[in-house]
């Protein structure tokens, strides 16, 4: 049975009560660190506080909390991403080796790095709004915002996906730090993985969909401006060649309503929960089948697919869709494999064709039956006969 996660604010409030009863000297920032490390579990938060008290006594500092819980300083991840952005392979590997020599845990490094990259992606999307956004824990929001402007959103997604895969592989390897060294090499020296910006080119990997009027429901621009978005070649070619890549008004009333309401829904999600917004805009198509909203992702965006599939995120999207359109839609997230790309885009059109074909067949069948009945009736009148059942 999966228990509901407790909010960060509730955990901090409970820890403050314990601190007051035990007469401990600890600031709110330190309590935030303890609460975040518990990942929504009050029991884990209280257990961590007990360990910290045993180690530190009555006076608890953020540094001592990091030492007990194995949390790595944010400065390390700032320098790590800085090395990757500048394609400085040696600097990146040096940071990995130095952290390893200090006795830090590799899995904790990946966990904290993933959280930092996640915050960086939100800063990239929100820009100055990140300064007041709740739910983001960082030592320096101004620095986070400044660094977010030096890296493309698409590349942050790539790093998140690599870290997700590395976290899974780490359970089965005796050399976990090698995976982090490979991350540095892959994103600084690997072919097609350089993250270095060219001049001051505008980041084209993100568009504020909620403010655009020429947006299809999949979150991509319409055909007139599609060339401005650097999509992958295969997906771009498929999008241009198929009418069904976005939901058309003539296909279904449900589709029309959702297409019209989609920018508003995205805007509300962005204001309510920015993380869910960043997951949704990573899709490569959206379609509707039998009152089910299907959201497709490339294989590289498995992390975004799995995150959006979490029950609380799906419920949030369903509730907003219902409020804006008055309809309830089930949510299904899938991997949009290139080999099957577009196969479900024409689902509704195929269903319409089948329905039309069925109706035509039924019409012909009824016409044939009526014709047969007329012949039988005329024969009975001609020969003055009656119809009897054969026993």
Write up what this structure looks like.
Residues 347-371 are annotated as: Disordered. The chain has 391 residues and is mainly alpha-helical. The protein has three domains: 8-69, Helicase, Ruva Protein, domain 3; 74-188, Zinc Finger, Delta Prime, domain 3, CATH 1.20.272.10; 209-340, DnaA, N-terminal domain (GMP Synthetase, Chain A, domain 3), CATH 3.30.300.180. The chain contains 16 helices and three strands. It has helices at 8-22, 28-37, 42-56, 62-69, 74-85, 89-101, 106-126, 141-148, 153-169, 176-188, 233-241, 253-272, 274-280, 302-308, 311-325, 347-383, and strands at 285-288, 292-297, 330-335. A three-stranded mixed β-sheet has the order 1-2-3, with helices on one face. Strand 1 (285-288) and strand 2 form a beta hairpin. Helix 3 (42-56) packs across helix 4, helix 6 (89-101) packs antiparallel against helix 10 (176-188) and helix 12 (253-272) crosses helix 15. Residues 192-251 and 339-352 have low confidence and may be disordered.
Short description:
By secondary structure, this protein is mostly helical. It is 58% helix and 4% strand.
Indicate the topology:
Layout lengths: L7 H15 L5 H10 L4 H15 L5 H8 L4 H12 L3 H13 L4 H21 L14 H8 L4 H17 L6 H13 L44 H9 L11 H20 L1 H7 L4 E4 L3 E6 L4 H7 L2 H15 L4 E6 L11 H37 L8
Parallel strand pairs: 2-3
Antiparallel strand pairs: 1-2
Helix fraction by DSSP (H/I, runs of at least 4): 55-70%
Strand order of the largest sheet: 1-2-3
Q: From the coordinates shown, what is the CATH architecture of the largest domain?
A: 2-Layer Sandwich
Per CATH, the class of the largest domain reads: Alpha Beta
Biggest β-sheet: count, sense, barrel? 3 strands, mixed
């Amino acid at each position: 049975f999966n228990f509901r996660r407790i909010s960060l604010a509730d955990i901090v409030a409970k820890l403050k009560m314990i601190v007051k009863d035990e007469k401990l000297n600890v600031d709110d920032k330190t309590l935030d660190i303890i609460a975040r490390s518990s990942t929504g579990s009050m029991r884990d938060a209280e257990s961590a506080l007990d360990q910290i008290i045993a180690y530190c006594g009555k006076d608890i500092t953020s540094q001592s909390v990091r030492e007990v819980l194995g949390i790595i300083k944010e400065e390390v991840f700032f320098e790590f991403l800085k090395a990757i952005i500048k394609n400085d392979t040696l600097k990146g590997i040096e940071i990995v080796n130095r952290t390893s020599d200090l006795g830090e845990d590799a899995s904790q490094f990946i966990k904290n790095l993933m959280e930092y990259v996640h915050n960086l992606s939100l800063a990239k999307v929100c820009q100055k709004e990140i300064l007041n956004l709740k739910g983001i824990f960082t030592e320096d929001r101004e620095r986070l915002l400044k660094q977010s402007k030096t890296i493309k959103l698409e590349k942050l997604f790539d790093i998140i996906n690599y870290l997700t895969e590395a976290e899974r592989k780490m359970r089965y390897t005796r050399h976990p730090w090698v995976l982090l060294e490979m991350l540095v090499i892959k994103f600084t020296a690997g072919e097609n993985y350089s993250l270095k910006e060219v001049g001051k080119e505008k980041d084209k990997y993100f568009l504020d969909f909620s403010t655009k009027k020429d947006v299809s429901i999949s979150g991509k621009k319409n055909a007139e401006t599609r060339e401005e978005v650097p999509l992958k070649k295969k997906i771009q070619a498929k999008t241009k060649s198929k009418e069904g890549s976005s939901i058309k008004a003539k296909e279904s009333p449900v589709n029309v309503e959702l297409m019209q309401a989609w920018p508003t829904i995205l805007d509300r999600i962005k204001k309510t929960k920015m993380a869910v917004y960043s997951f949704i805009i990573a899709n490569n198509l959206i379609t509707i089948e039998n009152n089910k909203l299907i959201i497709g992702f490339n294989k590289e965006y498995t992390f975004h697919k799995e995150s959006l599939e979490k029950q609380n995120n799906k419920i949030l999207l369903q509730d907003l869709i219902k409020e804006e359109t008055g309809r309830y839609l089930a949510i299904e997230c899938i991997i949009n494999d290139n080999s099957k790309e577009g196969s479900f885009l024409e689902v509704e059109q195929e269903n319409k064709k089948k329905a039309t074909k069925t109706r035509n067949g039924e019409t012909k069948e009824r016409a044939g039956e009526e014709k047969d009945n007329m012949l039988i009736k005329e024969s009975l009148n001609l020969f003055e006969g009656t119809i009897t059942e054969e026993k």
